[in-house]
């Protein structure tokens, strides 16, 4: 919940698959719909967004095919910035003020990552979009979502998923007995190897008391509802 009488503040994690609709590159129809759902919450909730980049490059995959891992990871991070700019554009078209903050300096397209400034932006009803991950190879944007949420003091991390509507006991596409959890603890997820987000990210949330909600972005108005605090999908707690 919110503390100190201030507005609810959320950190929304959008993975690359959300941008690409499962393909390489950016699907403008999907990004526009996402932007409009976010726009509907502006003024009520403060939102920062961490953007993934798997629709362009994943460092681990490129290094499997022979590239240097660190350089491949930098390519991955640069991919996230393209997603940021696409989302920024559609948010501004929907009438929302935005700022992109990048962990790799590229002053022509993004501010530097300055957490206190990010908070000020949100207080002024601007949506802040964090790009380039942590600026560090060997990290994931999931881990960055946890870290940014903690640093800007978000109340909750919201993980928007494509193709599933929460966390299941087994793969719902393969196992008819799979059930969706309404709540789950980080320890349960870690012990049972349930891949809600990567282990580093879950450990960071757990150690710092940060709650998370995993929800499906496909349902009507789901992104809006999750930002506003409706209990969609699975809540992950300490
Ligand atoms: N990446 C990185 N450091 C970071 C964040 C991302 O090196 O702090 C790289 C990494 O190669 C990763 C790629 O950027 O595979 C895209 O990010 P991610 O896989 O987390 O995106 P998502 O799965 O959310 O689409």
Automatic annotation (TrEMBL):
Q: Does the keyword Manganese apply?
A: no
The pathway to which it is assigned is: Pyrimidine metabolism; CTP biosynthesis via de novo pathway; UDP from UMP (UMPK route): step 1/1
One Pfam entry for this protein is AA_kinase
Give the EC number(s) under which this enzyme is classified.
2.7.4.22
- Which reaction(s) does its UniProt entry say it catalyses? UMP + ATP = UDP + ADP
Which UniProt keyword terms apply here? Answer: ATP-binding, Cytoplasm, Kinase, Nucleotide-binding, Pyrimidine biosynthesis, Transferase
Q: Where in the cell is it found?
A: Cytoplasm
GO MF annotations for this entry?
A: kinase activity
Residue positions binding ATP:
13-16, 54, 58, 168, 171
The Aspartate/glutamate/uridylate kinase domain, residue ranges: 9-215
| Regulation (activators, inhibitors) | Inhibited by UTP.
Is this entry keyworded Transferase? yes
Q: Which NCBIfam families match?
A: pyrH_bact (TIGR02075)
The role this protein plays is: Catalyzes the reversible phosphorylation of UMP to UDP.
Q: How does it assemble?
A: Homohexamer.
Question: What does the sequence similarity comment in the record state about its family?
Answer: Belongs to the UMP kinase family.
Q: Write the protein's name.
A: Uridylate kinase
Gene designation: pyrH
């Amino acid at each position: 919940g919110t503390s100190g009488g201030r507005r609810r503040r959320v950190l929304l994690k959008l993975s690359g698959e959300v941008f690409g609709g499962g393909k390489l590159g950016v699907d403008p129809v999907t990004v526009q719909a996402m932007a409009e759902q976010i726009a509907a919450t502006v003024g009520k909730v403060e939102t920062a967004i961490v953007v993934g980049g798997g629709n362009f490059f994943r460092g681990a995959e490129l290094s499997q095919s022979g590239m240097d891992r660190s350089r491949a990871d930098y390519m991955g991070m640069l991919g996230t910035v393209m997603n940021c700019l696409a989302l920024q554009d559609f948010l501004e078209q929907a009438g929302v003020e935005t700022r992109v903050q990048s962990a790799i300096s590229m002053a022509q397209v993004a501010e530097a990552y300055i957490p206190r400034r990010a908070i000020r932006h949100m207080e002024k009803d601007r949506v802040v979009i964090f790009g380039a991950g942590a600026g560090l190879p060997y990290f994931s944007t999931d881990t960055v979502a946890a870290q940014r949420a903690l640093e800007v003091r978000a109340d909750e991390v919201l993980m928007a998923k494509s193709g599933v509507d929460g966390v299941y006991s087994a793969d719902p596409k393969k196992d008819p007995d799979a059930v969706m959890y309404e709540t789950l603890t980080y320890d349960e997820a870690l012990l049972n190897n349930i891949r809600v987000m990567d282990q580093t990210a879950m450990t960071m949330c757990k150690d710092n008391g940060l709650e998370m909600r995993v929800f499906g972005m496909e349902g009507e108005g789901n992104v809006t509802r999750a930002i506003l605090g409706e209990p969609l999908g699975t809540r992950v707690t300490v």
